[in-house]
Amino acid sequence: APVVEQRTRWHTMSQSLLDNWSDEGCAAAISEAAASPADPSAPNPLKVVLHDLSSAVVRGALEPERLVTVLSDAALVDRALLPRVQSDLADIFWFLGLRIEAEKSDEDGDGAPKQQLLALVAALLQAELVAPELLKARLDPEMLQEAGLVASHADFHRAQVRLNTRALYTQQKYNLLREGSEGYSKLVTELAELPAGPRDGTSTRGCTRAAEVVANVQSLIGYFDLDPNRVLDLVLEALEAVPSRASHRSLVELFNPQYLPHVLGFKFQFYKGEAEATPLSLYALC
Hints:
Layout: H1 2-19, H2 23-35, H3 45-59, H4 64-72, H5 82-103, H6 112-126, H7 132-138, H8 141-146, H9 153-168, H10 176-179, H11 181-192, H12 210-223, H13 228-241, H14 249-252, H15 260-272, H16 280-283
Helix pairs in contact: 1-2, 1-3, 2-3, 2-4, 3-5, 3-6, 5-6, 11-12, 11-13
């Protein structure tokens, strides 16, 4: 109930502002919403107000220039709020673009709401109230082309795919001759020392702390230039072989967490086409 009341309060304020518009009232509403204490369980007040104002522009109930005039006036809106306002507006434009596309029908082909949204984006860009780079990171390629930020949405999408591929999937060219047998043999030996429990007796040197193994594994990766993806695969194999070792999360935290789902997914994919059932020990790693 408090969350609903808070959302209703900001919606009511926005509607009252639209019914009795004034630049000072708009600036006061934005400042009050920005200063409102953040509640993770409730909508962001600043986003609610900006969303209502942007939606009014899309409906044709508010001219884009009026909102731009308020945001560009340093005497009305504190310049320190602009980074938050810019980020929230970029998210709102993305959401409104999706909503307009979802509500568009074959019979309603005038495209007035979309044109109103594009007019607001253009006015904010002209006033330098929203950075083009921010919109390129948040908006869909089609909308970027319509707003004049990119020449071709297809070319922009292809450039995005190439950039993501280089950033996430291109592997470094490691020195395979140097990292070969000695580095991986020492790595496997070190992983065998990982204690499986408080009274584990598998360690040949009496290792009782996982931190010791973690430090040694890190040193081996650096000294022998081991491929982190291969090392991560062997670490997961070691944890899977002795499920009680899975509690040593600090060893997995050595690696980029973005790569972990891909390595685990590859292991599950291997069993998908096999007659052998996926082992339960693999599920224990998830």
